[in-house]
Design a protein that fits this description.
single chain; alpha+beta; seven-stranded mixed beta sheet; three-stranded mixed beta sheet
Length: 210
C-alpha cells in the first residue's frame, strides 16, 4: 500500500471480483496519484480452467451454454495455441456478464446484458503449470489488465472444444505480492498503519511508515 493518511480518500489499482482473490493495491490520501501508474505495471495471474464446457459468464458462476468433446486436446496443442494467439499485444472482448453473482442481485443486471467493445491488452507470457484434462492451470504474465475469463473461453474455441474459468488469483501487481499483502480479515487501524508503504523520493509525502 502507498499512503500518507489512512483516513483520507482512497482508490484501488484494480478491483477483484468477489468470486476470485489475490493482490489489490490500495492508495490513500495524496498517494492516490500513484494508482494510475500502478494500473499499467506488470501482473501475474494464476488461472484455472476446465475443458469441455462453456458457460454464459465464461466462468463457473454461469449456466452451461455449450458442451464439447475435449479428449483430443493435448498439452502441446494448448501450448501452441497460447503462444500463437495470446502472447503479445492482442485484442480481447470483455465478458458480457461480469461479476454475475453481483449483477443478478442488482437492478443493473438487465442493463449490463449488452455487447462490449474490444480492448487491447499486453501479455508477456503464458505457462502451462498443470494439465490434467479436463482441468488445466496457467500462469499468465501481463502488462496491465487482462480478461482471464474471455481468454479461457476463447482458448476452448481455438482448440475446437469449449472451456470456462474455474479459479483466478492475481498473485502480484508491480512490486507487490503476497509477502507485502495484508489479508482483509486482518484489517485494523493498527495493522493497516503498520503495513503502509511510502516512496521516499516524493517531497509531498512525508513521515514514511515503512
Amino acid at each position: 500500500m502507498w499512503s500518507d493518511d489512512i483516513c483520507s480518500t482512497s482508490t484501488v489499482s484494480s478491483g477483484i471480483n468477489a468470486e476470485y482473490g489475490g493482490i489489490m493495491v490500495l492508495g490513500v490520501g495524496k498517494a492516490i496519484k500513484y494508482v494510475p501508474a500502478i494500473r499499467t505495471h506488470s501482473r501475474m495471474y494464476l488461472v484455472r480452467g476446465m475443458l469441455g464446457v462453456a458457460t454464459n459468464t465464461f466462468d463457473a458462476c454461469g449456466d452451461y451454454s455449450r458442451v464439447s468433446p475435449f479428449t483430443h486436446v493435448t498439452e502441446s496443442a494448448m501450448r501452441e495455441a497460447l503462444n500463437e494467439c495470446y502472447v503479445g499485444k492482442i485484442e480481447q472482448i470483455p465478458p458480457v456478464l461480469p461479476s454475475f453473482r453481483f449483477l443478478q442481485r442488482s437492478k443493473l443486471f438487465e442493463s449490463r446484458l449488452v455487447p462490449r467493445d474490444p480492448c487491447q491488452v499486453v501479455i508477456n507470457g503464458i505457462e502451462i503449470v498443470e494439465f490434467e484434462p479436463p482441468s488445466f492451470q496457467l500462469h499468465i504474465h501481463s502488462i496491465g489488465r487482462i480478461y482471464a475469463t474471455s481468454l479461457v473461453n476463447d482458448l476452448g474455441e481455438v482448440l475446437d472444444s469449449a472451456a470456462h474459468l474455474t479459479h483466478l488469483c492475481r498473485v502480484s501487481q508491480g512490486d507487490f505480492g503476497f509477502r507485502e499483502a495484508l489479508h482483509y480479515q486482518d484489517w485494523t487501524e493498527e495493522t493497516v498503519q503498520n503495513n503502509l508503504y511510502l516512496p521516499s523520493n516524493d517531497p509531498e509525502l512525508n513521515n514514511p511508515t515503512r
